[in-house]
Amino acid sequence: MHPSHGAGLRANIKKHWIISTLVAVIVLLVLWVIVRAVAKPKPKPAAPAPIPVTLAPVTLGNIDVYLDALGTVTPVYTVTVASRVAGEITEVKFKEGQIVKKNDLLAVIDPRPYVAVLLQAQGQLSRDQALLNNARIDLKRYQNSYKEHAIPEQELATQQATVDGDEGTVKLDEGNLAAAQVNVDYTRIISPIDGRVGLRNIDPGNIVPANGTTGLCVITQIQPITVIFTIAEDEIDEVTAQMPMGRSMQVLALDRSKQHQIAAGSLLTVDNQVNTTTGTVRARAIFANAHNELFPSQFVNARLLVKTLTGVNLVPQAAIQRNNDVAFVYAEQTDGTVKSENVKILATEAETSAITGVNPGDMLVTDGFDKLQNGSKIVQRKPAAPEANAAAKNPG
């Protein structure tokens, strides 16, 4: 073998050995890294962040219990004023919408035909009274003559019958005269009650019938005025049980949105039977209506104050959650977690409810329920700064 060939062979062997060594070292390093990575303990997962919520305390206090119903404003008295006699309207003494008092003059019917009849009745009465007086004088003369046996008893009896007949005629004339006087009085149409006059149905010159169905106008009493509303039959006992005690039960009349109180009154009475179709009974409340706040036939929301619960647990209504038929709240625990507590709702007024199942001083969650469950960690949400609130209300 040529010496140069031996030297080249040795060089190739050395080169392959170096490469093999480097590959082995690299493989060992890779294995070491993999083993170290597998053997390294995994970090524990971070604890979930507390859920931000708003808390409100359970307080001890009083709450009113109301019954709500739709009511209709109903006047105590409503009168359709009609003429009692026929004739021509000569004067109209009222204006539409006017407040009138009892016995105020409303209209006048031409009285002349009725005054003429009255004069006839007076004349007839005077004539028959004169005949009666003459018959009585004759009767006295006949009585004296009969005592002296100057006339037979038959003539005395005939004269007595004449007097009796004339007395009956005078009474008939007196009745005719009274009826004629009443008709004359009826030509002046007066208000039978205090109240407000509606739109008139007559004008001067109109001929009106006696006891017409249309009437001249309608008068409604508006001070005081009443509101009729309904009570469910299940709540009747609770209401009627307090009426014999003599306690005035307050009734509020609210507007359609139930946000504005129109007037305050008191329960007057409850009807004597339940409507079997609706399962309700009608009730009537009376209102002074001093400033004419209530208008006849107006629809209002009536709120009857049934009773006041004293010394009960009061919570914001927003704290109460419902699951099927169960009401519950989330109460804060000493370790910063929450626990659900079943509660019973006694009454609700506006945004406040009276409940049992919690204690005064307990802190209840009022919002942030989306991710909340038993044992969840919570943190009380900080109230927004006044500047932020102002900016939210006035974004411009």
Question: What would you say this structure looks like, in words?
Answer:
- This protein has helices at residues 3-39, 112-147, 153-186, 236-240, 386-393, and strands at residues 51-57, 59-75, 78-81, 87-92, 99-100, 105-109, 188-190, 195-197, 207-208, 217-220, 225-232, 250-254, 261-270, 280-287, 299-316, 321-323, 326-332, 338-349, 352-356, 363-367, 378-380.
- With 396 residues, the protein is an alpha+beta fold.
- Among the domains are: 1-41; 53-64 and 310-391, conserved putative lor/sdh protein from methanococcus maripaludis s2 fold (Beta Barrel).
- Helix 2 (112-147) packs antiparallel against helix 3.
- The chain starts with a helix and ends with a helix.
